[in-house]
Amino acid sequence: MKRMVLIGLLVACLFLAGCAGQQGSEGSAQGGSGSEKSCDSKNPPLFKDGVLTVATDKPAYPPWFEGGPENYSGFEGEVANEVAKRMDLPIKWVVEPFNKSYAPGAKDYDFDINQITITPEREQAVDFSDGYFDNAQGVLALKDSPVADAQSVSDLKDGQLGAQVGTTSLDFINETVQPNADPKVYDTTNDAKSALESGQIDAFVTDLVTTVYLRDFEIKNSEVVGQYPRNEQFGMLFEQGNPLVGCVNQVLGEMKEDGTLQKLQKEYLQQYLSVPTLKE
Amino acid sequence: MTTRGTGPADTLEPSSGRGSKMLGGRAVLVSSMSTVLFFAVIALIVVLAPGSEVVAERFFDPFHLRQSLLGTESEPSVAGAFLLNVYIFTISELLILILALIIAVVRGIPGPVFFPFRMVAIAYTDLFRGIPLILVLYIIGFGVPGLGLGVVSYLSDVTYGIIALVLVYSAYVAEVYRAGIESVHESQNAAARSLGLSRWQSLRFVLLPQAVRRVIPPLLNDFIGLQKDTALVSVLGSIEAARAAQIYGASQFNYASYVVAALLFVLITIPLARFTDHLIARDKRRRQAGTVA
Q1: Domain containing B191 — which CATH number?
Q2: Are strands A161-164 and A203-207 parallel, antiparallel or unpaired?
Q3: Which residues of B touch A185 (CB under 8 A)?
Q4: What average pLDDT does the segment B246-261 reach?
Q5: How far is A25 from chain B, CA to nearest CA, in Å?
Q6: Which of A3, A4, A5 should one mutate to test binding to chain B, selecting the residue with the greatest count of B CBs within 10 A?
Q7: What is A135-231's CATH superfamily?
Q8: What span, in angstroms and rounded, lies between the C-alpha atoms of B214 and B169?
């Protein structure tokens, strides 16, 4: 008799599994083909009519963002402001935690600008604008750290490295450095900073600009050991298939051509980019 | 006791005679049909939801389920990281059992001389039951290393995590022990003392064995909670299952890794839950047998 219960359960499970499997294949087939739609720049498709709704994480860190969410400046703040200005729209800032930015479902903003690196894997789930900044990884250490004098990536192998979760810095550690000890992974830049200051990690890897900012304003006796470009670019994140990407790319193209992007980079990021490059 | 129920499926039905008679042929049919219907309705709701395709792809994609379980060159394996949860859980559980028992016993020592000890035990349970675990983790895990105090400040983050778990869970488990000790009737202690056992002997050989046996189910319940809370240790830097899932999710923009981690936690919780049920049932049988005799 009990067998019947088991058979019943089995049937239910198979039913569920069948549905799930089917859904999975349909979903992924749909994945790649969203971004080809064109955008009418006279009448852009917006989340909310008449205003460009832009998201970023909170807290937002300088020099990417300066000031408050009423009127962000800073490099990314100004890039978004400039995009809005050229589209002839007022801008409205909203908060989007990084870990939520790739959740399924409709997004309640037009795009998210939050030092998000464009990768092919991520493009399966969202759409990115063209890159607006060439990012390099930076390695931050205390001056008495065992890796403080590292000249090359292989000099970092023996150190205890740390990074923030979800960053391509973690990919850099795992793929490029391949350290002997597993890296430590923290929720926020602040946690990694505490761990660095108290000696739990020998070096903290994050984007170059943030390492220089931490060195100059936050962590005493620290130094940026070096930078390592990995051909990574930051892009704005859109809901997959959102035709607005086309309009924003057009504006970004203009900003690159007329030197606005370089001007903003010089204004906000210049002091952060002069760091020796690590050898292989 | 009856001689029924020697098959492996014995645990599926209540051990007393009353329930098993009700599960006749018709009952089995009804129960299996209602089971199928129940899951079919849920499946239908999920399938008909407007975003079901995206959710299926983002949470249940077989490729991502497998890849996150096994890991890649740049993302840690969720299964491998889960071993750290098991390690943390095992060590913490042993330490908690010991520390909590000490606290519970100290709290129960009578006599005015021991007032300060009782006070410390009470203050301890009040304090650590009151603070959220994640805050204790931050205070211990980032605070103590920051002090620069020789050996104490240079432990691994996993060690700090275990210390925080032990501090918080010992406060809970001490209360469970105390409830058990207080549930043993006063006459037991009186009888033991009148037989010439000292206060400690009475506690050790008469009160505690009865108390501990009674609180095993709630103890195991707390340990199931502990198993899950090992995931919080990741805030201090180590890559356990939930963190490995987060790393995978952030890099691949897919949540299947979270589903994998959740399944692993369930997988290790179920045996403990069934074991708890088994102990409760056995205890019930014993007590019933006791009253008859």
Answers
A1: 1.10.3720.10
A2: parallel
A3: 234, 237-239, 243, 247
A4: 92
A5: 8
A6: A5
A7: Periplasmic binding protein-like II (3.40.190.10)
A8: 19
Asked if the Cβ–Cβ distance from A174 to B75 is below 8 Å, we say yes
Chain A interface test: which of B4, B38, B53 (most A C-beta within 10 Å): B53
Quick check: A165 and B76 CB within 8 A?
no
**pLDDT tens per residue, range B164-188:** 999 999 999 999 999 999 999 999 9
User: Is A135-231 the same fold as A52-132+235-272?
Assistant: yes
With respect to residue B24, please indicate whether it lies within any of the assigned structural domains: no
Report if residue B104 sits inside a domain: yes
User: How far apart are the CA of B28 and the nearest CA of chain A, in angstroms?
Assistant: 6
Give the residue-averaged pLDDT of A45-67: 90
Look at residues B111, B103, B149, B102 and name the one whose alpha carbon lies nearest to residue B128: B103
The predicted model gives B159-163 an average pLDDT of: 96
Between chains, do A174 and B73 touch, taking CB under 8 Å as contact? yes
- For residue A23, give the nearest of B53, B154, B239 by CB distance: B53
Residue B266 domain flag: yes
A28 pLDDT exceeds 50? no
Q: Write out the two tokens for B30.
A: 């009804």
Provide the CB-side half-sphere exposure for B217 (13 A, CA): 11
Q: What is the pLDDT of residues A239-272, one digit of tens each?
A: 999 999 999 999 999 999 999 999 999 999 988 8
| Average per-residue pLDDT for chain A | 86
B264 lies in which domain range?
A: 68-292
How far lies B20's CA from each of A245, B11, B28, B35, B275, in Å?
64, 11, 11, 19, 21
pLDDT tens profile A115-143: 999 999 899 889 999 999 999 999 999 99
CA distance A232 to A117: 6
> Residue B84 in contact with residue B239, Cβ under 8 Å?
yes
In one letter, which amino acid is B188?
Q
Tell if the CB–CB gap between B62 and A24 is shorter than 8 Å: yes
Give the mutation candidate from A7, A26, A28, A57 for the B interface (greatest B CB count, under 10 A). A28
Partner residue opposite A27 with nearest CB, options B9, B12, B53 = B53
Q: Choose the weakest-confidence range: A33-37, A45-49, B196-200.
A: A33-37
Per the prediction, chain B carries an average pLDDT of 87
Does CATH place domain A52-132+235-272 in 3.40.190.10? yes
